[in-house]
Design brief:
There is one protein chain. By secondary structure, this protein is of the alpha/beta class. Helix content is 39%, strand content 17%. The protein has two domains: 15-123, P-loop containing nucleotide triphosphate hydrolases (Rossmann fold); 130-374, no CATH class. A hairpin with a 5-residue loop joins strand 9 (296-301) and strand 10.
Length: 384
């Protein structure tokens, strides 16, 4: 398979690079810093060595006096290294550190301050449509997602199932994050029904037969492992009574499809709609993460039920985006956007759908999903 050029850019200083497993952090770093001193904590013998003696890093650097960049892969596996890195960053030798991780939970647990602001915080996400170019296939993305490890596999369905099992085994079970793996597995299944929906923790707790506090803890684990994220309500200059609960998304459409059980009572429209909305969400998050300017992602929902799936707000852009799993736009599909634009005429309204035709209806731009996703190019506005 042809090499995919990522839109993530080197910030030019020491930085943390977080992201779910399999999103290509190591591959990108190997290409970007081929001469770096590399500490691979995924190797058990290396992890044991640095956990026992974090100061071994100083010795490794003394052995490579020409090294200018140090990459520590999966730093959460030996958090004691950060104290050594902190001292080296402030030392006389000009060194850049790149510290990768698929979880910040262990770092938080031991009270690490992420180098007191001396290193930037960056995230890497699954592939974007603009990165794949002509190779992007909307149908495949909705079924298997865009995690590079899965996308580039000759057997994506099997790889996706193995990916989920890897997280359960190595990130949850081995780290001792939960005591009862059976209840956590039930929680994962239940949370898949809340993908692209307002989170009702009490309902999930009843489904899993655990306490609400336990569900809150489980959800916190998923967020720390970068497997799930929440999108808050847009309330800036609100003119109506607004909902107060965030929406929940899994990090990738393929992860959602792998966790979501299906049967005779499940419709293609329901599952496909959740997958499409999640695919748009993960693209918007990646687009924001790879920008040099601050943006916020939220959604809009009034207590009377008017809703817009996404609101992207930044220095120059103000977009309201509705996602519909349909090939034909009906008047009711535009109702939420029209309500939002009545309150916020400064915004641009977009409806993203499965049709092939680009339309303009009552000042709202209607776009095929592939066209919209491909137009999300980091560093550029939405040129549509």
């Amino acid at each position: 398979m042809a090499t995919v050029v990522r839109k993530f850019r080197d910030p030019g200083t020491s930085f943390f690079l977080f992201g779910p497993r399999g999103t290509g952090k190591t591959t990108w770093l190997r290409g970007q810093f081929p001469d770096a001193l590399w500490v691979d904590l995924l190797r058990p013998e290396v992890q044991r060595s640095y956990e026992a003696r974090p100061e071994r890093l100083v010795e490794a650097l003394d052995g490579q006096p020409d090294a200018r960049v140090v990459v520590i892969d999966e730093v959460q596996r030996a958090p004691g290294l950060l104290s050594v890195v902190h001292g080296l960053v402030e030392g006389p030798r000009e060194l850049r550190f790149v510290l990768t991780g698929s979880s910040s939970r262990k770092l938080k647990r031991v009270g690490v301050d992420l180098l007191g602001g001396r290193a930037l915080y960056r995230t890497m996400h699954p592939f974007m449509a603009t990165e794949l170019g002509a190779a992007f296939d909307l149908g495949r993305a909705l079924e298997f997602g865009l995690i590079p490890l899965v996308w580039e596999s000759a057997r994506p369905a099997e790889t996706l199932q193995a990916y989920i099992a890897l997280y359960l085994r190595e990130e949850v079970q081995q780290e001792g994050l939960v005591r009862n793996m059976a209840s956590f597995a039930r929680f994962l299944e239940a949370i898949s029904f809340s993908h692209a929906a307002v989170t009702n923790l009490a309902h999930i707790a009843r489904e899993c037969e655990v306490s609400r506090k336990t569900v809150e803890g489980y959800l916190g684990i998923l967020e720390d492992l970068l497997i799930a994220f929440r999108v808050p309500v847009f309330t800036r200059r609100a003119k109506r009574a607004m909902s107060s609960h965030a929406k929940l998304y899994l990090c990738d459409a393929g992860v959602f499809r792998a966790l979501r059980p299906t049967g005779p009572l499940d419709t293609l429209e329901e599952i496909g709609g959740q997958a499409l909305e999640g695919l748009v969400a993960q693209h918007l998050r990646a687009w924001i993460a790879y920008q040099d300017r601050p943006f916020s992602l939220s959604f809009w929902r009034t207590r009377s039920g008017a809703e817009v799936d996404f609101v992207l707000y930044g220095p120059e852009e103000f977009w309201a985006i509705e996602v519909k799993h349909t090939k034909k736009v009906r008047s009711g599909d535009l109702r939420g956007l029209k309500s939002f634009l009545a309150d916020y005429p400064e915004a641009r309204g977009f409806l993203v759908y499965l049709g092939d035709e680009r339309l303009g209806i009552d000042g709202i731009t209607v776009l095929p999903a592939s066209e919209f996703l491909s137009a999300l190019v980091p560093g550029e506005g939405l040129s549509l």
